[in-house]
Amino acid sequence: MPPDDDEAEDQQQPQPKGAHALEGLVVGSYCHDVLLRGGRVVGETLGGAAAFVSNVLDAASPPEAAFCVVSKVGADFAYASAPAPARRPALLCPARPTTSFHARFSDAAASAHAPDRQLRRVHACDPIYPDDLPDRPFAYGLAVGVAGEVLPETLERMIRLCRAVLVDAQALIRAFDAEDGGVRHVALEGTPYARLLQRVAFLKASSEEAPYVGVETARRRCCVIVTEGRDGCRLYWDGGEARVAPFPAVQVDPTGAGDSYLAGFAAGLLWGLSATDAALLGNFFGAAAVSQVGVPTFHPKMLQAVKRILEDKAIPRSSPCINGAFFTFQRSIMHDELHASLEEAARLMHDQPPPATENGDGIHSAQEPTSGC
Ligand SMILES: Nc1ncnc2c1ncn2[C@@H]1O[C@H](COP(=O)(O)OP(=O)(O)OP(=O)(O)O)[C@@H](O)[C@H]1O
Ligand SMILES: O[C@H]1[C@H](O)[C@@H](O)[C@H](O)[C@@H](O)[C@H]1O
Fold first, then answer.
1. Region Disordered: which residues (predicted)?
2. For atom 3 of ligand 1, which residue has the closest CA?
3. Ligand 2: which residue has its CA nearest to atom 11?
4. Nearest listed ligand to the Cα of residue 148
5. Where are the domains of the chain?
6. Average pLDDT of each block of 10 consecutive residues along the chain (373 residues)?
């Protein structure tokens, strides 16, 4: 198919050079997450895919890979003075409250693919408009909205600015009940985002979202990743697919698993891994996310071990690999070895207990809202 005018323009875009040749653009708002069980509040945490994503990119990107976050919050934002990731300043919308979700957990033992929580959007901050994005080229972009804030025209602008865009399906297919904010999904094909898919590099969906994405149609336009909770994930591209094994985890809070997965995956690409190998890093950080409440804290020894593994295993990054033209999808010959080394590193996570307080509900309060609200 010949490129349309927009695509031709994209292909002529100047390549970022110098220290920030691997700079990324993360678009999606921070939010307040309230966790409920049996009608009782059992945790209040910083949320929003952008928060989980920046946490993992900070931890796992190659040293030369910087990124910036475009996020919106209201004057009530409770984590403005929290340490990373929210220290990356959000755009303040004084007239609107911070986006906020109530997540109601059921007591029933969740199967790997059953919805583990009922989500309700309680407040929505302003959308992120195309003009809110910095006007410069980026090596890659992550569209990680939670409440419909990444507008179609904003995604389109990301595609123009970034050499490769990775999208979380939750940014595209969520709809919100007008009465109670209940979150449901709509078919991607019926949304204005569908026509942009062929200019997206990777689209990630959870197994709950996958039927709304339409994997068989979408994989002809971009690589589709379906995350399967404790079973790991599968990648589908035009002409092939792969299953990628998970890492063991004791799940205390599933929130942010998909976000942490996507950032781990992007970091893997930045280190020069193939998509199927990078998915191991996605699974690794997804597993790390579910073992803590809210945005997880990683043990420094674990991170050192992960970086050593990546320095050792990843191919030299003389030219940025995160570039639509140069993705390789297949697993490499060192895939199993990489999994074994990361599994070893994951054990270091438990060298000392994470900074969380057990509250008897299987959900731990790792982060209290800080002052500054
Ligand atoms: N219980 C678990 N044990 C090990 N790994 C897990 C577990 N849950 C999630 N993961 C990892 O995290 C990835 C993403 O999880 P999942 O498929 O549940 O995403 P999600 O439903 O989008 O999460 P969320 O919406 O809560 O952010 C999985 O592919 C897997 O690698
Ligand atoms: O903080 C969480 C997280 O970002 C999840 O990925 C998203 O599904 C929820 O809506 C949000 O509250």
1. 351-373
2. 230
3. 48
4. 2
5. 20-104+112-353
6. 41 43 92 94 95 96 92 95 78 94 78 70 97 95 98 98 96 97 97 97 97 96 97 96 97 95 96 94 97 93 95 64 69 95 91 46 36 21
Instruction: Name the closest-CA residue to atom 16, ligand 1.
Output: 229
- How far away, in angstroms, is 102 Cα from ligand 2 center? 10
Give the list of residues 6+ apart from residue 295 with CB closer than 8 angstroms, or none: 45, 46, 47, 51, 52, 55, 85, 256, 366, 367
Does the Cβ of 254 fall within 6 Å of ligand 1?
A: yes
Q: Which ligand is nearest to the CA of 145?
A: 2
Indicate which residues carry an active-site annotation: 259
Q: Domain 20-104+112-353 has what CATH class?
A: alpha beta
CA of 231 to the centre of ligand 1 (A): 8
Please tell me the predicted confidence (pLDDT) of residue 161: 96
Q: Which two tokens stand for residue 41?
A: 């509040």
- Give the span between the Cα atoms of 219 and 209, in whole angstroms: 15
